[in-house]
Specification:
heterodimer, A: about 260 residues, mainly alpha, B: about 325 residues, alpha/beta, six-stranded mixed β-sheet, four-stranded antiparallel β-sheet, 10 helices, 14 strands
Amino acid sequence: MSVLDVARHDLLAVRRSLLLKTVLVAVGLAPVAGIALGFALTDEVTPRFLLLSTWLVVGFVVPFVATLTAATAIAANLEAGRLRLLLSGPTERGEALLGTLCSRLTVVTVPLALGLAGFAAVFAALPQPVQPGRLAGFAAFTLAAAAAYVSIGLAVSAATRSQTRAVGTALGAFVVTLFWPRIAGILGSLLAGDSGLLLSATAFDVLGRLSPFGAYSQVISDPGAIYGIEVTTPLLGAGAMAVVLLGWIVGPLAVGYRRFSRVDL
Amino acid sequence: MTAIRTRGLTKTFGGVTAVDDLDLRVESGEVFGFLGPNGAGKSTTIDLLLGFTSPTSGEATVLGRDVRSAGADARRDVGVLPEDYAVYDDLSAREHLRSMIRLKAVDDDPDRLLETVGIDPADRDRPAGGFSKGMCQRLVLAVALAGDPDLLILDEPSSGLDPSGIAEIRDLVRAEAESGTTVFFSSHRLPQVEAVCDRVGIMDDGRLVAVDTVDGLRERTGGAERLRLSLRDPPTEETLARLGAVDGVVDVTAADEDVTVVCGEPGAKAEAVAAATRDAAVADFAVETTTLAELFERFTGTDGDDPAATEPDTGPVSIGRDGGESP
């Protein structure tokens, strides 16, 4: 119960903030903005192209906003002294962390879900049909990616004493995850020329999909498109990518809690 | 029952020992004042009791619960006014109370609490980000009082308050103590501590250098009271010798017509006056008690860094409850 009370408390505290308004607008409009981009880029719009254009916008905006939304949560309250007030009662640190996670997930995923509903409505109105499963998969993986970046941001926030450092570190992590598929690809190309190394190209493909953005893009982007590669092994399939995203939701939180439970307030 | 108990409690930061082997016992129902100069380890001790920081060694229990193993449960029946806190800028005072009451899982009325700490109805629905330091203190004190806790831990509760606010806090502490609540508070305001505390503990350089009632501390430092005699003429050697021979007199000094007789026992004062009147004309006399500020100075070798330590506790100052407090 206390986790939900903390979530409610955090939502109450941020509900009038500029942060919340910015998140609502940016995340809520991102799917529709992606569709608008698709229409702006070509006269011969196909559902596949619209999915790609939406991925381009949503794939950048949602992780970016989710990371920032969570990165300010714990560190800012610790730095200001608000955590001393919150934790002066019978609230465990774990409850505070999970409650804040629930709150920030709500802040990011509710407007995102609404935006995705608008996105689905546009697809429903298109003359060319799209498989409902494809849209549902797009929505589910987008929400999962958002949750992963909220978790990363919150973990950084919980492990950092200053808001500025938390935001800087979280943005650094965001950039690395964004370019990780490319970095892994470059690494694979470089090492492929090294006769001593016998790792297959597939191994580097999988390595590149171990970042949340890589996993998300592998599922959403078409094979041959940016960051999308042909599924030649189950390790590159949607199931494996779902596991990767789940790992990014749970893993950072565990690390963040470990640090947060020991920090001096 | 023991409200607070520490055994060998120690906290070091790097090479600095903030709290050194602290053994402390605060009984239920008492008002305990925790004194010491800045950096003495008072706030670190309170942070250890609240689980805000972990001890390097030793143990501490609050209301019988170990602060390390019981975690947040140790704070279940405790009201806390911590140091270095901040309020939520966008929440009103009423919203703070509603939310904190929910988090404490208690049943209380936000308006009753805000009334108790003196936050005007007109201020209860405006964002706390615009509150002065004094109003924030009142607000967080209201949070601490929510649910009628068995133990109040107040870290510098009068910080940021004007004299009338300090007097209100003092009355509040008295009222809580009368209702059976244990109160443990740190303060630089020695007159306030002296006015409300059953016992005091004095910290210095991380160590607890004294724990006793204020009267007990006076006795331990010798010279519990000073009798000041104003004579018509300078005293003779014989007069001074007679005063020094009175049972219970610790010391006798003279400056012109003024004689100071330090009495270790209460009964010595009357005998000293009688002894003086045998061969000298006493124009006036007064009895001075050793103040807590003087005791503090003797135990710590400092009068504290805060000028407020020696300021009169309160006076007939009438400043607006909220507007007059320092921001």
